[in-house]
Write a structure and sequence with these properties.
This protein has about 325 residues and is an all-alpha fold. It is built from 14 helices and no strands. The chain has one domain: MetI-like fold (Orthogonal Bundle).
């Protein structure tokens, strides 16, 4: 009689030799490399290479000969250089103070004092102006600032500004540009700060209430310190955006029929150097000045705020 043997079925997992990754993991890695490659190409093409070329132009003349700091000395001695940087610094101070204070204040109010449904609607409404391009935003504000057609002409006239020329007086430009920047950029940061406040554990806020902390004491001693890194990040990004000021004053200069200086901001001055005077080396030197200013400011903020410190160390 023949005995048939039943083959054994192994239920264990066969050992892997580890010589090759699994196919799903390999696909994920390839997809990751694909997305990173696209960003890397754009970063190199429109970030790293133009920056490196700007440094090359800033330290050479139009014949490609190394000139040291001559280009920087030349533009720094230009009579338009200091006024342009003074205008930008005044604008930056106004912009950063108003942005940080009002964005954090509105985010705190949305987080704690308004019903969730209303809060979501307001966050959406705040974000809408940020969807407009810079040119469109300036055109809206040109309409708002012209006393002849503005819906708030009564307010402009009450402030002694009865004509468009009076509104665009040189002393008013930092405030006008700050209002345009806040209207277009603050909404997105309000959403970011609201999200940062939502990451604070409810147990922490409840413990503060049990210890007798009132609403504003909780905000000042609990919430703001816990989102400090987000506030610093917002300040750095807003500073970087502010140093790139060009479109808004350029359009205001055109609309004012020459009342606003064509070199009001450093970027406008660099534009004049490059495309009106044909001095691309001087324009590159101004760009390097701006880049250095931004890096120094960002470095100071990061160093004093421990922006990249780990929460659990």
């Amino acid at each position: 009689m023949t005995v048939l043997e039943t083959p054994r079925v192994s239920t264990g997992t066969p050992p892997r030799d580890g010589s090759a990754p699994s196919r799903p993991r390999g696909r994920r890695l390839n997809a990751g490399y694909f997305f990173v490659a696209g960003y890397t190409v754009l970063l190199l093409a429109f970030g790293v290479f133009p920056t490196a070329y700007s440094f090359y132009l800033a330290f050479t003349n139009d014949r490609g000969q190394f000139t040291g700091l001559n280009q920087f000395t030349k533009v720094a001695k230009d009579y338009r250089f200091l006024p342009a940087f003074e205008h930008m610094l005044v604008y930056l101070v106004l912009w950063l103070v108003v942005l940080v204070v009002l964005v954090v204040l509105v985010a705190v109010v949305l987080r704690g004092r308004i019903r969730p449904g209303t809060s979501a609607l307001l966050r959406f409404l705040y974000y809408i102006p940020g969807a407009l391009a810079g040119v469109a935003s300036v055109l809206v504000w040109l309409f708002m600032l012209d006393p002849d057609v503005s819906p708030v002409s009564w307010l402009l006239e009450a402030m002694g500004m009865h004509s468009f020329a009076a509104v665009l007086a040189p002393g008013h430009l930092p405030v006008i540009l700050m209002l345009i920047a806040f209207w277009t950029g603050a909404g997105g940061w309000m959403v970011v700060m609201y999200g940062a406040l939502n990451n604070i554990p409810d147990e922490v806020l409840e413990a503060a209430r049990m210890d007798g902390a009132g609403p504003w004491r909780t905000v000042w001693h609990i919430q703001i310190p816990m989102i400090r890194q987000w506030i610093v990040y917002m300040a750095i990004m807003a500073f970087a955006t502010g140093t790139q000021l060009f479109v808004e004053p350029q359009l205001l200069q055109t609309a004012s029929l020459g009342r606003v200086s064509p070199t009001w901001s450093p970027n406008q001055l660099a534009f004049v150097f490059a495309f009106q005077q044909g001095d691309f080396n001087g324009a590159a030197a101004i760009s390097v000045f701006l880049l250095s200013l931004g890096l120094i400011a960002a470095g100071l903020l990061v160093a004093r705020s421990n922006l990249f410190s780990l929460d659990d160390k």
